[in-house]
Every structure is written in structure tokens, then in C-alpha cells.
Design goal:
The structure is a single chain. The chain is mainly α. The chain has one domain (9-70). It has helices at residues 9-25, 28-42, 46-54, 67-70. Helix 1 packs antiparallel against helix 2 and helix 1 (9-25) packs across helix 3 (46-54). The protein is elongated.
């Protein structure tokens, strides 16, 4: 992957799963260095990385929200708010 390409979500999760094992075994100073490395590779914020690494890296299934969940299927240009 070239430096210009962004990682997909699945690629990031795969990378973070590998790093999670190293992160959990590391000392505080090593964790800081690992976070710097992960931040540079994934282009994610530090706090987001910490949340992901300390939590469960499994992705949740998509659940429709709002209009798509409440309204029955409609056709054409009809919306949830008008007919």
C-alpha cells in the first residue's frame, strides 16, 4: 500500500488486532511509542486508538436509524415527512 492510500476499516481493524497484543504487554513508555506508530499508520486520533485498543475490535452490524427504521417502504420521491 502506498503512502497516499488510506486504510479501509477492515484493514485498520486487522492491524489494530495485531497491535492490541503488543500494546497490552507493553510498559507505559512503550505504549506511548506504540500509539505514536499506530497514529501515524492509521491516521486516527490517539484517543480513538486507545478506545479501540482497550475495547472490543469486533464491528457491529449496520442498524438503520430514523426514517428508514420507522416508515414502511416507499417508492418514488416520497419521504418520511410528506406524501
Amino acid at each position: 500500500m502506498s503512502n497516499d492510500d488510506e486504510m479501509t476499516i477492515n484493514e485498520r481493524r486487522k492491524y489494530l488486532r495485531k497491535m492490541q497484543k503488543r500494546y497490552r504487554k507493553a510498559s507505559e513508555k512503550e505504549r506511548s511509542m506504540l500509539l505514536d506508530e499506530m497514529q501515524q499508520i492509521t491516521s486516527m486520533h490517539r484517543k480513538s486508538l486507545i478506545r479501540l485498543i482497550n475495547g472490543d475490535l469486533a464491528r457491529r452490524p449496520f442498524a438503520p436509524t430514523g426514517c428508514a427504521r420507522r416508515a414502511p417502504a416507499r417508492t418514488g420521491f416520497e419521504s418520511c415527512w410528506g406524501g
